[in-house]
Amino acid sequence: MKPLNRSQLHDLYYYLRLNRRVDEQLVNLYRQGKVVGGVYSSLGQEAISVGTAYALQPQDFIGPMIRNVGAMMVRGFRPRDVFLQYMARQGGPTGGRDANTHFGDVARGVIAPISVLGEMVPVLAGIALAAKLRKEKRVALTYVGDGASSTGPFHEGLNLAAVQKLPLILIGENNAWAYSTPVEKQMAVRNLAERAKAYGIPATTIDGNDVLKVFETTRAAAERARRGGGPSFIECKTMRMKGHAEHDDAKYVPKEVVEKWRKKDPILRYEKYLCAKKLMTAEEKAAIEARLEKEIREDVAYAEASPFPPPEDAARSPWAP
Amino acid sequence: MATSKIARTAKKAGVPNAATLERMLYYLKLTREAEFRIERVLYRQGKIVGGVYVGRGQEAVGVGAAIQLREGDVILPCHRDFSAFVIRGFRLADIFANWMARADSPNRGRDNTLHIGDLKLGIIPIISPLGATCPVACGVALVLKQRGQGNVALVHFGEGTTSVGDVHEAMNFAAVMKLPVVFVCNNNQYAYSTPTEKQYAVKSLAVRGPAYGMPGETVDGMDVLAVHEAVGRAIARARAGQGPSFLECITFRMTGHSAHDGAEYVPDALLRAWEKRDPIDRFEKYLLTKKVLTRAEIAALEKSIHREIEQAIADAEARPMPAGAEALEGVYCGPECWWKREN
Predict the structure, then answer these.
(1) CATH code of the domain containing B62
(2) Catalytic annotation on A13?
(3) What is the mean pLDDT of residues A205-232?
(4) Range of the domain at B278
(5) Is residue A224 less than 8 Å (CB to CB) from chain B?
(6) Most CB contacts within 10 A, which of A134, A235, A318, B270?
(7) Chain B nearest C-alpha distance from A201 (Å)
(8) Could you read off the pLDDT of B10-62 as tens digits, one per residue?
(9) Is the ipTM of this complex over 0.85?
(10) Does B164 touch chain A (CB under 8 A)?
(11) Domain boundaries, chain A
(12) Structure confidence at residue B337 (pLDDT)
């Protein structure tokens, strides 16, 4: 497999930074009282969203969770889509009806996140089945957290994918906490990958804060799936750097653990790598940052100026006409 | 060869005493004959209607497991575990009356399969959407653990059921909470018409145990002593506070999924091959070889079993059918309810 060229390496950097900036901006808006509802940050987990999504091809399908905003950006959504959603504006993807990131676009190969985690595994397995039946070179990728790996649908979807040898990639985003449940209370094995062995599929555990590792592992799994090699499970270890959501102060997480992981920040690490290998100059970095800031500034302004849905809209049926 | 394999297994295990061995043969033969009458006589005579599920060929799994339960233990059987009901104390006549939908029967004519239970006997009814009893078993085990008297819960299900989400959630919960549950998987090679190759992509379901952090083992389900031994060890672990275990018992479904299923999808040669490994024939040979029982004693046992079954069927047949006027009653438990009357 070809290594990434300079431009692609910069792409990864752009998306990592974009993911984090969108997150930060949301928190600002939340504190200003402009966001309706819960804000779910992906701080510290950006390498997983970006690395996995970047490894897919345009015809592939992805089923992100709400902490995978980075993946949605890679697939072509813009920061304004996220801001419009969170601020419940009419122009947002769900017309102000979902104040989170439960939106997608089948045309762009993005399945809207299902709030009930675990459920997307059978859904994306179904998409993989369709691809297989149609003899398409298409793969389906979705995510579960450590918590969602304990759900029935995770089991049923993964077993079906294994038996039918479907082109499904399942990313186990192990960020050590499912709300206030630590992973030691979630399962009696050490790694999520051990669960996946129960299905007879290749399973691996990698450093989820290493964007290149995430990218390479996902790409290899996608190639395997495209060749008819069936599903894979990739456990990406990371840490949830904030609470379950902004309204959760996460006092139950030991501060030392968070600080230990801060030193392993995925964006810092990637920056150091690019710098050490002379793959990004200070000017190139500054250009990316300028582009990011402009984008965020414009999209926040756009979203803030965007109208709320009119009250009459509330009675409109949520079902497709 | 079958006999020497049983002998080898027995040496390892610490074989049950002669009295227990005889009881095991009794339950095996009682189950086979009773289910024969249910599926291939009463059903064909139109005296039993509806879906008829028996465990032909898989009797060793029910007997080998349930016979080890003691006071306070709880079993959550599946449709192939007729013996578990009798071992725990259900009256044969009541089981036949239930199959024949009599008013005086555990389900009062409203459900005529083995969806029967009795908390006093430590037996929880089969829940028709299979897999659902697994989380229930965890709930039971959680109570048993809290009571601290060393009791265990046994839950039985097939290999098809292992693909159901409930089993995953239950096994994970049991492992994390170190609950005294024994998960007994009766792998009889077919889930209705789905063969094992279309059910799972692993070579053996035993790997499901370690995937949750509990011991997992494959057992010869056609060898009642092997089942007895493996379940015995799992029960001992649970009683000692070491948590759950997963046992895959390899058997073969020697009849259709149900009486109305001709099972043409099962290759004849496969069925004939497995029939040679009949668990009851094998155990009988073992008992004769080990001189635990003579041929005459076994013949007498068979006669006695036939008499017992005939009496139970006659008893059940004599009971009246439920009155039409009562059809809408008894969905919810009231003071007149069978269970409340007995308490």
Answers:
(1) 3.40.50.970
(2) no
(3) 98
(4) 2-342
(5) no
(6) A235
(7) 8
(8) 445 578 999 999 999 999 999 999 999 999 999 999 999 999 999 999 999 99
(9) yes
(10) yes
(11) 6-302
(12) 67
